[in-house]
Design goal:
By secondary structure, the chain is of the alpha+beta class. The protein folds into three domains: about 325 residues, no CATH class; about 110 residues; about 160 residues, abc- transporter (atp binding component) like domain (Coagulation Factor XIII, Chain A, domain 1, Distorted Sandwich). Helices cover about 45% and strands about 15% of the residues. It contains 20 helices and 22 strands. Helix 1 packs antiparallel against helix 4, helix 7 packs antiparallel against helix 8 and helix 7 packs parallel to helix 9. The longest helix is centred in the middle third of the chain and has 29 residues.
């Protein structure tokens, strides 16, 4: 195969690789898995100015910070969202493929370069890795870059006379070896392989020019300078350093090496990774034909190990095998990530060796057709599994939080044009994010004008009840609402589409019903100003304006005429937003035996007031526990609002004049037990 044909095929394969990695990017994977969420949270920490060599994840777990700093910088430019977080992995994946082609062509010829590129183009794990928000996506690029730099430094060519290298590959080697420490603990083994190959070349070559040795010394000096902060941090925080995490939590007693190695080899050709995040469970990394070609290439390299172009990938393979194979849950494709470029190299070598071992032109043509069939088979196999079978697995949906991912995609498409209420989930305990936090993390349109309420005891009807949608990030939110609020939502329509989760989106328009309800309050919800308020009369009728740009529209109390001591008063109020309101606004509900004392009270608010807009109406369901010792009798109920930051109450206004700081909204009867 000529270099020109090889280059043209490589361009076509790279275009195919880009298509496979970008297709359905907003919906595949369907969300984020836990490790991706952790990496994004670390990147957000870096964006806020906390740049560290190791980030402490708790429980003695550390994580190198270079990937997260790069992710924070890139997403600051292109925007924060699921797609922008994935872009860096896609770019790195495509750059890796290009470098693998260049490396394989340099070592074993143009045909080997095309074959190596083709293998990684249609490999399921390589594509998933290229879509993943993960520091491991840097590992194949790092391995390929280091090997290519060494190949250029020592003039490791398939053909052509050795040339005196320029300073560029030495600088590249030094930078890669230094920066790699800040990417992943597996880099320790990459450095070990690099040093082993350098010693191999120095010891086996009859003469090594002083110039080359001097440049090598310069490259190692660059590595040490770049890695110095890493060394200092490792001495200061040894439990977080990468040296302690090279083999993860591998235990030689619980996981016998022979068993683990056997499982890893089986994962390459027979029964692959069972983790749905990394694979269609059980799918091998390679098909059997590709596996045979890989073994052929490996055997050819072993036979010619004395030649440097074969020794180079073999030394790196030997150094990285322990990291790849000695894992807790073998076969583990994530651990095999650093070996992907080497697997491609040996596969390309096997293809090239078999092809050129055939003397007859007809035999070569037949093999070329066979290779095209193999590529077509792998492409079809990939298409079926990646776009058909894998996304539909319940385990994939659970691992990637697909419900929230689907809702995030829906909001990206609709939230800017349709008023949207998100039923806010309570904060999670520990390091995990709530469902609402995950929803906002996965959205690409961070500036969408969303409203938030807990929907259990609070509901927002936007623009006076006009067209809106309500988002339920958690499965049972719709059914766990207070029955009074649920009646409002049940007047809408639950969207049922293939790309939406069940009970995830409700379309609602209750403009007329809301107007009727508020109009009814003028006769059914009597209110009065506080006795201490100055004015000609204490009687009032809703709506009543308060300070802070809110208006009280009316109320509905519990239908029970008499309450029992120790019971709970349920009080439902309606409020309208007339402008910007204090972000720390809270509502109070008091039960009063007389105007000067409080027998029971609740201060609460169930909506995020900072997200509300003018003409939004929110319904607040308030529960007031009545003390078991409360005397029987008749009690007044008063309501109001205050700024919790300053504890200053909002004034009750009549014709722009303040009439106290509370409203009296009826009475209740309490009976002793």
């Amino acid at each position: 195969m000529s270099s020109r044909v090889s280059y043209a095929l490589a361009v076509l394969l790279l275009l195919l690789a880009a298509f496979l990695r970008l297709r359905d990017l907003t919906r595949l994977p369907p969300g984020l898995h836990q490790e991706e969420i952790t990496d994004i949270r670390v990147a957000e920490t870096a964006r806020q100015g906390t740049v560290e060599v190791f980030y402490d994840l708790g429980d003695g777990e550390g994580r190198e910070g270079l990937y997260h700093v790069v992710l924070a910088a890139l997403s600051s430019v292109v925007g924060r969202g699921l797609v922008s977080y994935q872009l860096i992995s896609i770019w790195v994946s495509l750059l890796t493929l290009a470098l693998v082609y260049a490396l394989a062509t340099r070592l074993f010829g143009p045909l080997a370069g095309v074959a190596a590129l083709a293998l990684l183009t249609v490999n399921l794990w390589t594509i998933l890795l290229g879509r993943e928000v993960s520091r491991e996506s840097f590992l194949p690029l790092l391995v390929t870059g280091v090997i290519l730099s060494l190949a250029r430094i020592f003039s490791v060519y398939h053909r052509g006379a050795p040339r005196q290298p320029s300073t560029a590959p030495f600088v590249a080697l030094g930078l890669l070896l230094g920066l790699g420490f800040y990417v992943h603990p597996a880099h320790f083994m990459i450095v070990l392989a690099s040093m082993a190959f350098i010693f191999y070349m120095v010891l086996t070559r009859r003469t090594t020019s002083r110039r080359r040795l001097g440049y090598l010394g310069f490259a190692l000096l660059v590595m040490m300078i770049v890695a110095m902060p890493y060394l200092i941090s490792s001495l200061r925080l040894p439990r977080l350093s990468g040296a302690m995490r090279v083999f993860g939590s591998y235990n030689i007693i619980q996981n016998p090496p022979l068993t683990v190695i056997g499982n890893s080899i089986s994962g390459l050709f027979f029964l692959g990774d069972q983790n749905p995040v990394r694979n269609l469970p059980g799918r091998p990394l390679l098909d059997l034909v590709s596996g045979v070609l890989l073994l052929v290439g490996l055997l050819v390299a072993l036979r010619a190990i004395r030649r440097r172009r074969y020794a180079l990938p073999l030394i790196f393979t030997l150094a990285l095998l322990p990291v790849a194979f000695l894992t807790l849950d073998s076969p583990n494709f994530l651990a095999l990530t650093s070996l992907l470029p080497l697997i491609a190299l040996f596969f390309g070598l096997g293809v090239s060796t078999l092809y050129y071992s055939l003397r007859a032109r007809s035999a070569r043509r037949l093999m070329a057709v066979g290779l095209l069939v193999l590529l077509g088979f792998n492409l079809g196999w990939l298409w079926r599994d990646l776009y058909g079978v894998w996304p539909r697995l319940p385990a994939v949906a659970a691992a990637y939080h697909s419900r929230i991912g689907q809702l995030a995609h829906h909001l990206d498409m609709t939230a800017n044009s349709l008023p949207t209420l998100v039923c806010d989930s309570p904060p999670s305990k520990g390091r995990e994010l709530s469902s609402t936090d995950l929803l906002l993390l996965m959205m690409n349109r961070k500036q969408a004008p969303l409203r938030f309420a807990d929907c259990g005891t609070g509901l927002v009807l936007m623009n006076g009840g006009a067209d809106q949608q309500i988002i339920f990030p958690e499965t049972r939110m719709l059914h766990n609402m207070h029955p009074y609020l649920q009646k409002w939502v049940q007047q809408g329509t639950v969207l049922t589409r293939d790309n939406l989760p069940p009970d995830g989106v409700v379309m609602l328009n209750v403009e007329q019903q809301l107007a009727d309800t508020i109009g009814r309050f003028t006769t059914t919800a009597p209110v009065a100003f506080a006795p201490e308020a100055r004015g000609s009369t204490n009687l009032a009728a809703p709506p009543v304006r308060f300070g802070g740009n809110i208006t009280f529209l009316g109320y509905e109390s519990d239908s029970a005429a008499t309450y029992t001591a120790g019971g709970i008063l349920t009080f439902i109020t309606y409020w309208r937003v007339d402008g910007m309101i204090p972000p720390t606004l809270r509502l109070f509900t008091h039960v009063l035996p007389d105007p000067a004392s409080i027998a029971a009270q609740t201060d609460t608010i169930s909506v995020n007031v900072g997200s509300l807009h003018s003409r939004d109406i929110f319904i607040q369901v308030t529960f007031v526990p009545l003390p078991a010792s409360i005397p029987g009798g008749t009690y007044d109920v008063s309501i109001g609002a205050y700024d919790s930051a300053s504890s200053v109450r909002m004034g009750v206004l009549e014709d722009s004049q303040q009439r106290g700081t509370r409203l009296f909204v009826g009475q209740i009867s309490v009976a002793r037990r």
